[in-house]
Design goal:
Layout (H helix, E strand, L loop, with lengths): L1 H20 L2 H4 L2 H24 E2 L2 E2 L4 H13 L4 H17 L5
Antiparallel strand pairs: 1-2
Helix pairs in contact: 4-5
Length: 102
């Protein structure tokens, strides 16, 4: 266990050092700036997709899929965060309550 913790700490330190060692001219490149701006969005989208369609080691379609669809629609209509979360929760809950989804 301690080996894993030590390796993780060394890896984090190495990444932090490498980030500080990158020349500023590289970071000012417009392509690098664009990639850095889009990277968090793509990672968040991947996380949402995995949490929506994954069930342990298999893919599944259940009440989460229409719930994310409804949440996406509310986001598209510029709804508030609480409205997005509540609409997704109500959609998933209603589908499960009426036996239309697992």
């Amino acid at each position: 266990m301690w080996l894993t913790i030590t390796l993780g700490a060394v890896g984090c330190y190495a990444l932090k050092y490498l980030g500080a060692a990158i020349p500023e001219t590289f970071l000012e490149n417009p392509l690098v700036k664009k990639i850095v701006m889009l990277l968090p969005i793509s990672l968040l989208c991947a996380l949402v997709a995995v949490q929506t369609f994954a069930d342990h080691q298999s893919l599944t379609v259940d009440a989460r899929v229409p719930a994310v669809g409804v949440a996406s629609l509310v986001l598209w209509r510029k709804g508030s965060f609480i409205l997005v979360v509540l609409s997704a929760a109500v959609t998933a809950g209603a589908l499960r309550h009426f036996g239309l989804a697992h």
